[in-house]
Amino acid sequence: MKVRLKQVNKSFQKGKNDSLNVLDNIDFNINEGEFVSLIGPSGCGKSTILKLIAGLDYPTSGEVLMNDKKIKGPGTDRVVVFQEGGLFPWMTVFENVTYGLLRKKMTKKEAEEKAMEGLKMVHLGNFIQSYPHELSGGMKQRVAIARALVMDPDVLLMDEPFAALDEQTRLVLHKELQSIWAETGKTILFITHNIREALTLSDRVLLMSTRPGAIKQEFTVQAARPRDPSDSNIVELERRVMHELEEEMEKVLKEEFGDDYTLAKSNIHDSDNSHMGSHI
Ligand code: ADP
Ligand code: MG
Questions:
Q1: What is the pLDDT of residue 15?
Q2: Which ligand is nearest to the CA of 56?
Q3: Taking a C-beta distance cutoff of 8 angstroms, is the pair 26, 8 a contact?
Q4: Which of 124, 197, 204, 253 has the CA that lies 20 to 30 A from 279?
Q5: pTM here?
Q6: Which domains does the chain have, with CATH numbers?
Q7: How far is the CA of 165 from the centre of ligand 2 (A)?
Q8: Which residues are CB-neighbours of 19 under 8 A, at least 6 positions away?
């Protein structure tokens, strides 16, 4: 399934006579089986784009299409994974993953087999009777990924799914997501504010400008897979993306701290994980 955003604008009503322009002429494709990331300063409209594709909201103008057909609402062909996995705390891991399948008019046996398959794919076969509160953050996100995968969507929409995890866990999940993607051939839109994460996982990275969000630049990642974050191709791209992002960040910081604010550039280049805190 191919996703296409065609000259999409989105504004939200703000009070009676005012509106907030959030997306400005967003126009891009995600090809079938492609892994695309969106990065950009916080508040630039990344989650809004994801919601438009999920069918949870509608553009003010322009079109959001799946295989050339206008998206009219949520559908089983698209599943979202959020930062906080959104598991039901009163259900076991197994029940969480089986839940959506049972609503699909599947027999209990089929649903359970599929759920088990999904949980094995994320290496949680031994935790099926655990409750979410008994799991680490990384395990919870694995359950969320399994729950999304078993629905067999065409497109997986991931909104900063690893943002709350520690660096080590995140690296492991990058490896797992890469092999899941290779195995299933899903089309993935991945939102993150971690540049290296975007470059490690994606075929293409779309960099957004500050609000109203526009696609500022597109980067194609050519490094071989499975990706090694220290690949020279990725390191070089990281420098370029960072450079572009600095301009956008400076705009955000000026809004927060006033016009005389300038970014101490050396600090950012020295940061070892390209994680820029709350500003991007
Ligand atoms: P990001 O995910 O890039 O951080 P969002 O897409 O969540 O940004 O939000 C972009 C802007 O739109 C923010 O200023 C946010 O406050 C605003 N916004 C998002 N959803 C709504 C809504 N339903 N109503 C009003 N404003 C919204
Ligand atoms: Mg967001």
A1: 87
A2: 1
A3: yes
A4: 204
A5: 0.90
A6: 3-77+153-229 (3.40.50.300), 87-152 (1.20.1580.10)
A7: 16
A8: 11, 12, 13
